[in-house]
Specification:
Length: 294
C-alpha cells in the first residue's frame, strides 16, 4: 500500500507537467481553432533560458523571468508567422506551427552547446513524510505550482475583461468582433500564455536532470492528455494530465511483476490511453460534443 501511495504522488507530480503543457495546447486551440505544434520548442526554450539565469539570479527568480520571456517570444512568433495566416485552412496553419517548432528548436539547441546544462534543483532529493508515505518535495512543488497557475488562469478568464474577451472569441469569433473584441490581441495573448506555461513545464521536467536536445519529447505526451480531457476543455487538460501521469507511474512501478509487459511498457501507456478514449469517447471526457445537421 505504501508503494502504491508513493507511486500515485509521483504520478501527480509528473502529471502536473503534462497538465501545464496540455493547457497551452487547449488555450491556443480555443482561441484560434488550430492545434499549435510549437509547444515543444517553447518548452525547451524556457528550460534553456532558466539554465542561463539560474546561476546569477537563483531558481525562484529565474523561473518566472524565463516564463515571461518565453511568453513574449511566443507572442512575437504569433504576430510574425501566424497572424498573416488568419483565414487560411486550419491544417495549413498547423503545418506552419510544425515548422516554427523545428526552427526554434534548432536555434535553442545551439545555446545548449556541448556542456551539460542544469536548471537547478532547490529541493534536491529531499523527502517529506505524509501519513507514513515518503514524498519527494519536488513532486509536491510541481503539484502546488500547477494548482496555483490553474487557479490564476481560472480567475483571469472569469473576472478580467481580457479573460472575458478570450472566452467570447473562443465561443464565436465573428460575434466577438462585432462586440468590439480585438481577436488579434486574443490570439497573441493565447500564444503568450501557452509559451509561458510551456516554459514552466519544461523547467520542472528538467529539475534534477540535465537539459538536452531531447527534452522536448516530453511534450508529445500532452497530445494523449488533450485527447483524454477534451481538446477544448481547460479542466480536461488538468485532469487528463494528472490521470496520464498517475497511470504512467503506476505502470512503471508494477510492470516488472508482469513479464509480458517488458521493462519500458510505461512509455507507451499514454498512447494506449489515447487509443482507448478515441474508441469510446472521441471528444474526450470533458470536450464539447459536436453535432452536425445533415
Amino acid at each position: 500500500m505504501k508503494e502504491l501511495a508513493e507511486s500515485i504522488v509521483r504520478g501527480l507530480g509528473i502529471g502536473s507537467v503534462y497538465a501545464l503543457l496540455a493547457l497551452g495546447f487547449v488555450i491556443i486551440y480555443k482561441a484560434t481553432k488550430v492545434i499549435s505544434f510549437a509547444q515543444p520548442a517553447f518548452m525547451l526554450a524556457g528550460a534553456v533560458l532558466v539554465t542561463y539565469l539560474v546561476g546569477p539570479l537563483g531558481f525562484f527568480v529565474a523561473l518566472p523571468l524565463a516564463a515571461l520571456a518565453t511568453g513574449l517570444f511566443a507572442m512575437g512568433i504569433e504576430r510574425v508567422a501566424i497572424r498573416p495566416m488568419i483565414g487560411k485552412a486550419a491544417f495549413v496553419v498547423a503545418i506552419i506551427t510544425l515548422g516554427i517548432d523545428v526552427a526554434v528548436r534548432v536555434v535553442v539547441n545551439a545555446f545548449i552547446g556541448i556542456n551539460v546544462r542544469y536548471v537547478g534543483d532547490p529541493w534536491g532529493v529531499a523527502t517529506t513524510t505524509v501519513l507514513g508515505v515518503a514524498v519527494q518535495q519536488r513532486h509536491i512543488a510541481m503539484l502546488a505550482v500547477t494548482a496555483l497557475l490553474v487557479t490564476a488562469l481560472f480567475l483571469f478568464f472569469r473576472y478580467t475583461r481580457m479573460g472575458l474577451a478570450m472566452r467570447a472569441a473562443a465561443y464565436d469569433q465573428e460575434a466577438a468582433l462585432a462586440q468590439g473584441v480585438s481577436v488579434g490581441a486574443v490570439f497573441a495573448l493565447s500564444w503568450g500564455l501557452a509559451g509561458a506555461l510551456a516554459a514552466v513545464a519544461g523547467t520542472f521536467a528538467a529539475v534534477g536532470e540535465s537539459v538536452n536536445e531531447g527534452l522536448w519529447l516530453i511534450a508529445l505526451v500532452a497530445l494523449p492528455v488533450i485527447i483524454l480531457g477534451g481538446l477544448d476543455s481547460l479542466l480536461g487538460a488538468v485532469i487528463g494530465g494528472l490521470i496520464v501521469g498517475v497511470v504512467q507511474e503506476l505502470t512503471a512501478t508494477y510492470q516488472g511483476h508482469i513479464d509480458l509487459l517488458g521493462a519500458n511498457f510505461s512509455v507507451i501507456t499514454p498512447y494506449l490511453v489515447m487509443m482507448l478514449v478515441l474508441l469510446l469517447r472521441p471528444y474526450g471526457l470533458f470536450g464539447t460534443r459536436e453535432v452536425e445537421r445533415v
